[in-house]
């Protein structure tokens, strides 16, 4: 029996279905309605039904419809109109980023390439929490945007003094296009900000789609969405909007998720077929910490931007900062206060200190500052530590401190979500980019954060560089260049990370700019095989963009029980010639069950391109059910709706409810034999629901294989008045 625990809020930048918590909510509903015909004209018709109907926004680019808020009776009447196609409940999104561990070398975004290109003139949109466009590193590149939370043209981050301040969008924007003391991947792009997530980093699908529409109308060429959910399946209607944006010529880049290292953890809409999903690379680095021998304590530290490296091989005395005491030959520990970091470091340096450590006396939160080297050269390292560690050190007397270093190789970040995608078995992520210990802009300064939210904007910046370098290339060619030239990563055992962990590998912008070969759709997903013998074929398109002939040949994996490959013999492409190449796989009943994946190598002179493949034999260990939701029908208060994604054939669904405090079984809420692989939706009458309040729900899926899959969720049941 497989048991999966699912919280009602579980996000990397996550989707959380709304919980209705009071009866007044039942009076009004907010929904997204898709319509036939011109949605602006349909609004007028809807107003004739109820003049009090509030139209929050009209979609006419990525969707044909609108988001409306009104009484249940009004929305029920609207659904009867012949031009209304369908209705979608609202979904909620929230930001979530990870604090980075302290390292000797945090990652600066512009270090990912050495090309002369800067993304000049490329229009990039950031759908997020807004950005602090007054930040000195962003203000020169900021070109505008829109706030679909407050519905105005001021997409500023929610300020900290509101109690629900945000910084996520500013950090993402800085990775893409900061141009000041810190440089982004593409420091000359035109930055547009679309605030879809408001105070505390929360928002809804209404706002996310509206923000995307504003971006497309503004003519952005690349759109970054460091958001998603934990459901490995369809995300409707947001995925429709993503795919439509791609059709309209806008490249969309979406974070893969922070739910790793388990398989099947990629979140929608990164699962969408038409988007470019990004996992997180943890680059080779050296962690640095202070070691206090008396208490056998390791203390992480965070170097300031602009500081010379912390690179000591001997022990030094550590003393508190003082204007009266000698600082000569010591590591000095000082409080963060109103004196600028650079000024404090300059004084410590003049008094003979070998390094300066800063801590915040009011908070144990990590903080990252910067040192300005323009006015006065600061030759001593400057770093920060936590308040609790600082107070522990200050309690010691005659303290000597040593520095320790630990080297960590390139790897897939442990938190990075893994594929594959359920149901269609696509390999995801598409590519990796730096997502650990990323230094970037935040309101009022800089911060070191990590997550696939930080990896995605590296790719967005990389696409901008390629677009500047090759202005005549199509979007497909630009994306193919990044995938074709990605660097495959290996574990410490010298085995490549799995395709579902790294996709094509780590982004290599320098190689992508110079490539002479493009491989389109290089990830070979053969789907599910069954029976005594099954043949599956996947086609890749190989494009020679050089002025010389190129000769290619394949080498396939060693013969494995139950698997036989059929690939073309050697072939030659002339200058600017393209060829579609079929790759076939014969699978017999002798092959091992489950997800089978590996690599096929394509050789061209001194280049070898590694094409990942994946297929599922008989069955896989994917999550059986996801995204269970039980909510009051927005049109009829006496009806409850439910939905659940099921990835295997099933015979029965049961939902039992338990008291949230005593965990006593209260009864069975729902049972049905009408269930199948895919999205299951249904309804039950409120008359059949005997419960009122919040409960722990156990969702049991009885699979056709005889197994039982159980999820644990929160369920809110409110009896109509």
Task: Please render the helix and strand layout as text.
Elements: E1 2-5, E2 15-16, E3 28-35, H1 39-49, E4 54-59, E5 65-71, H2 72-79, E6 84-89, E7 92-94, E8 98-99, E9 123-128, E10 142-147, H3 168-177, E11 190-195, E12 202-204, H4 205-217, E13 222-225, H5 238-247, E14 251-255, E15 276-282, E16 285-292, E17 297-300, E18 302-303, E19 316-320, E20 331-335, H6 341-350, E21 355-359, E22 382-384, H7 387-394, E23 400-408, E24 411-412, E25 431-434, E26 438-442, E27 445-450, H8 452-469, H9 475-484, H10 499-502, H11 509-514, E28 517-520, E29 524-529, E30 533-544, E31 550-555, E32 563-566, E33 571-573, E34 578-588, E35 594-604, E36 607-617, E37 625-632, E38 639-646, E39 650-658, E40 665-672, E41 678-685, E42 693-703, E43 708-717
Helix pairs in contact: 3-8, 4-5, 8-9
Written account of the structure:
- This protein is of the alpha+beta class and 721 residues long.
- It has 5 domains: 19-89, Peptidase S8 propeptide/proteinase inhibitor I9 (Alpha-Beta Plaits, 2-Layer Sandwich); 98-283 and 411-502, Peptidase S8/S53 domain (Rossmann fold, 3-Layer(aba) Sandwich); 285-403, 3-Layer(bba) Sandwich (Glucose Oxidase, domain 1); 516-617, Immunoglobulins (Immunoglobulin-like, Sandwich), CATH 2.60.40; 624-717, SOR catalytic domain (Immunoglobulin-like).
- The protein has 11 helices and 43 strands.
- Strands 9, 10, 11, 13, 14, 15, 24 and 25 form an 8-stranded mixed beta sheet that branches.
- Helix 8 packs across helix 9.
- The longest helix has 18 residues, at 452-469.
- The protein is globular, with a radius of gyration of 28 Å.
- It starts with a strand and ends with a strand.
- Residues 1-26 have low confidence and may be disordered.
